[in-house]
Amino acid sequence: MPLADSSYPALSVFWTIVEVFLWVLWFWILIMVLIDLFRSPDLSGFAKAMWFLFVLFIPLIGVLAYLIIRGSSMHERGRQQARQQDEEFRAYVQDAAGSQSAADELTKLAGLRDHGVITSEEFEREKSKILTGS
């Protein structure tokens, strides 16, 4: 007797939700394996092609074998890539903020000079420090 013909409609809805969840989980794992496979620098092109064909033609066994054989290094490669992206982002933000803050400092120094708080010599000395980055 199929679940759809059940006299408990809530149970049918529950099993449908479970099935959808499992399908989404399966596709997520499959996509993560394929992404890791093609981004992996330690595999040759031939090895990547063989893994791809294995996962393509025998998906369940291929994905399970990949996760068992290369799963631990898969996590490490993901962590390393995330760290590299974070470093690149931080360098970009520091570069963008650094150039903007130098302009802000020069504007502040010019305002201080215009209001007579610092002398022209002090302004030129601080301006050269800011422009040379020291």
What does this molecule look like?
- By secondary structure, the protein is an all-alpha fold.
- It has one domain (3-132).
- The chain has helices at residues 9-39, 45-57, 59-114, 120-132.
- α1 packs across α3 and α3 (59-114) packs antiparallel against α4 (120-132).
- 4% of the residues are buried.
- The model has no long low-confidence stretch (mean pLDDT 86).
Name the descriptors.
mainly alpha; 134 residues
From the N-terminal CA to the C-terminal CA, the straight-line distance is: 79 Å
Q: What is the mean pLDDT?
A: 86
Number of strands: 0
Q: How much is the radius of gyration in Å? A: 30 Å
Structural domains: how many: 1
Helix content: over 70%
Give the helix/strand class.
mainly alpha
Unreliable residue stretches = none
Report a brief summary of the structure.
This protein has 134 residues and is mostly helical. The protein has helices at 9-39, 45-57, 59-114, 120-132.
Secondary-structure map:
Layout: H1 9-39, H2 45-57, H3 59-114, H4 120-132
Helix pairs in contact: 1-2, 1-3, 2-3, 3-4
